[in-house]
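TICKET #2291
ISSUE: user wants both folds in one file
ATTACHMENT 1:
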Amino acid sequence: MDMRQISRLLAGLVFLPLLSEAAGKCERLIVTGSPDAPPYLWRDPADPAHLIGASADLIQQAGHELGIKVEVLYGGKRAQAHDEVRTGRMDLLLDAPLTVAGLSSFDYIHPPLVRNDYLVWTRKDSPLIYETPADLHGHKGAVSEKARLSETFNEFARHQLTLEPQPGLTQAFQKLLLGQAEYVLAGRYAGMVTAQTLGIADDLLAHPQPVDQPGLFLAVSHDSACNEPWLRGQLAKKMTELPASGLTEAVVQRNLERWKTQLQQPLSAPKQ
């Protein structure tokens, strides 16, 4: 083999990693998540096969910038959607809570796509003074069964708080108004829109200091053909860039208005 052939061989070896990376680049992502978590994610009334919301808009924006086609599909209720991604039938969860158990099935992308602030809601005439979670000790509270608080807070609540689960946020607020609960734990936006829809916003006070701020993470299935270092790295980069640009907050606010508009046609209380 002469020097010219050796040079060509070496040149080919240099470009092999680049070619492999290009060949393995994911071109299409099938994603899903909770179908009942507005303004972040909910089932599209006009197209029930798809999910809409802030999380859907943000992952599609990230996909567009990365040259990846993203489809946000309805994968069933929350547990079913989780299973669709866990088994690799779908690639990615949009709103996964970070759990130790989840690490065996998913690669979580840091930072989270969004954080869902949970606030303490009381009646305006309530004597309850809240500044820290410890202030809730000894007081009876209510929370929707659909609430997804962090593992750390759930552990604290099990040992320190008296929280009665309710089928939904509407029922939790009803308990509060009837004096059967002293406070309700609810997401900032879910609580606000539910109170407005029920016509009780003027009767309630949302304390501004969040009691918990669970992150909603992108979680890539270990069994997804798209789960590769390039994709995980690029998604992590986008999750950092989007909030810094102000786009995340703008998208959340836009979808909050979108959700409110849908609730008015016909007028009904949100289910979470």
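ATTACHMENT 2:
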Amino acid sequence: MAARTIAIASGKGGVGKTTVCANLAICMARLGRRITLLDADLAMANLGITLGMEDTPTTLHEVLAGDAAIEDAIYEGPAGLKFVPSGLSLDAFLRIDIEKLKPVVNGLLSNTDILLIDAPGGLGKNVLGAMISAAELLIVTMPDPSALADALKTKLVGNRLNMEILGVVLNMVRNDKSEVTPEEVAVLLDSEILQIIPYDDNVKRGSVEGRPIVIRNPDSPAAKAFKKLASNLLGEGIEEEEEKGFFKKMFGK
């Protein structure tokens, strides 16, 4: 069976896309899949911090600059997932050839079931390079108008690239009256809401500590939401009682 390639993008920065990438990858790996997580956010490179994997001497920067082979930039992360980090080298960053990204991605597929690509924010050249390298698109956004406007632009780009739009992850939801409702988001983006991730201060704390919430607080509503998202994307269900309990906490139903 061919490996899946999924770009995770948002358009707008600050919506928790990288946090979603990290937690989703760990949950998928725990479900027995061979997961490779690639940090294509070449300018910011925060995924290594979120995973607690900052000591990575060879990165995607060196690979795309022609200074290293992709095999030298693969590290083992939580739950046995494989991680390809971006780096902080300004010299390598300035010499990056983004057109090499798709061949690099193709070179990773023989030893993985699912390749998750953390795309940069915005809609610049590096974002397009990340999206072109994947067949599927998962959109991460928040329930506010500016984030949704950028999410819509991202989806339209995905359509132009003939990507399969998996749906939307609605992140950091407080269930507040000022927020755009999930139903309104689904209509605006003309996409399925795959999962609602409730706001939790521990998500940010975990990212700062290098311990994603599915590791730091595995029984929290946010962690359970990430587990459900992973199960759904893999075509697996979750226990009915766990699902009912989550939605009762979120919506009082």
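RESOLUTION: both attachments delivered.
EXTRA DETAIL ON ATTACHMENT 2: The CA atoms of residues 34 and 117 lie 14 Å apart.
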